[in-house]
Amino acid sequence: MAQVVAAYGVVSALLALQAGASASSFFSLPRTFPNISACASEASAYSCENTTAVANTCCSPTPGGLVLQTQFWDTYTGLERKGQLLPKDSWTIHGLWPDNCDGSFEQYCDLSRQFDPAPSPAILPDGTAVPAYKGPGVDTFVAEFGRLDLLDYMNKYWVSQGQANNGFWGHEFSKHATCTSTFDVACYGPDYKKNQDVVDFFDAVVRAFKMYPTWEMLAASGIQPSNKTTYSLTQLQSALKAQTGSVPFLGCGHNGTVLQEVWYFHHVLGTEQFGHFKSVDSTTTSTCSKTAGIHYYERTPTSEREVRLLP
Question: So where's the catalytic machinery, residue-wise (predicted)?
Answer without folding.
Answer: 94, 172, 176
